[in-house]
Amino acid sequence: EFQREDSVGIVRSMELADDTGVIRVTLWDEKAETPLNIGDAVKIENPRVRYRNENLELSLGRNSQIEVIKGEIKDLPSFEEIEEMVYPYKNISDLDEESENVKISGELTDLYGDRIISYRCPRCNTRLDIGEENICNFCGEAIDEPRHLLMIPGRVADETGEIRITFFGREAEKLLGMKTEEIVDVINKTGDEGALHDKVEDLNGVHVTVIGNVNFDEYNEELRFNPKKIVDIKF
């Protein structure tokens, strides 16, 4: 959810793939409430096509239609076949800045949980310093309740190498087995931002399979894996 001047909006994003490729889809307001599951076959009509971050995207609003198609569809490969085509597996040593929508598998290492909640302005998403006045230094918004972003930084390693990774939001919730609201509640009750430090540390050694993109972190001068989805977790 996000706040408009006179109403609350809803936005949801997903990726849509067939045997030719993958495209990002953004659903707005009532379209965002369409019941969808991973693996569903869908039919989309009248989307708005836009160019963003050097890629085409679909945007579904009031005049767009999305329909879940039941049963098998002629000439469309299975979900598993599509996943293998659009998310090829790579060893970590083979990753580079051009690696997009790739799948890696390895053990989590160097996870730390001293401060896993980032407090954000609900209007512009700028990081807030809660110790200061409850006003966003970027947009000037008075903050009644900040947006809470869950984040778990660390590395993932396989037999060929390792790469830096940070899990955000729902993917971080999958690792911890807790919702962000539950984590914020624990932190508020204990007054300790590192209250879940041990729980995060216990995730070191867990084996994960992850889909995502790679970019070069200029500050740390190394490659970084940006996870989109955790496919599998072996605790």
Helix content: 10-25%
How many individual domains? 2
Counted by DSSP, the helix tally is 4
Question: CATH superfamily of the largest domain, please?
Answer: Nucleic acid-binding proteins
User: pLDDT below 50 for ≥5 consecutive residues: which ranges?
Assistant: none
The quaternary structure here is single chain
What is the annotated CATH architecture of the largest domain? Beta Barrel
**CATH domain topology of the largest domain:** OB fold (Dihydrolipoamide Acetyltransferase, E2P)
Rg is 20 Å
CATH class membership of the largest domain: Mainly Beta
Mean pLDDT: 92
Alpha-beta content class:
mainly beta
Query: What is the CA–CA distance across the termini?
Result: 32 Å
SSE string: EEEEEEEEHEEEEHHHEE
Features:
235 residues, OB fold (Dihydrolipoamide Acetyltransferase, E2P), mainly beta, single chain, 4 helices, four-stranded mixed β-sheet, 2 domains, five-stranded mixed β-barrel
Provide an overview of this structure.
- It is built from 4 helices and 14 strands.
- The protein is mainly β and 235 residues long.
- The chain folds into 2 domains: 2-85, OB fold (Dihydrolipoamide Acetyltransferase, E2P); 87-234, Beta Barrel (OB fold (Dihydrolipoamide Acetyltransferase, E2P)), CATH 2.40.50.140.
- The strands form 4 sheets. Strands 9-11-12-14-13 form a 5-stranded mixed β-barrel. It has a 4-stranded mixed sheet with strand order 3-4-7-6, covered by helices on one side. A two-stranded antiparallel ribbon has the order 1-2.
- A hairpin with a 4-residue loop joins strand 13 (207-217) and strand 14.
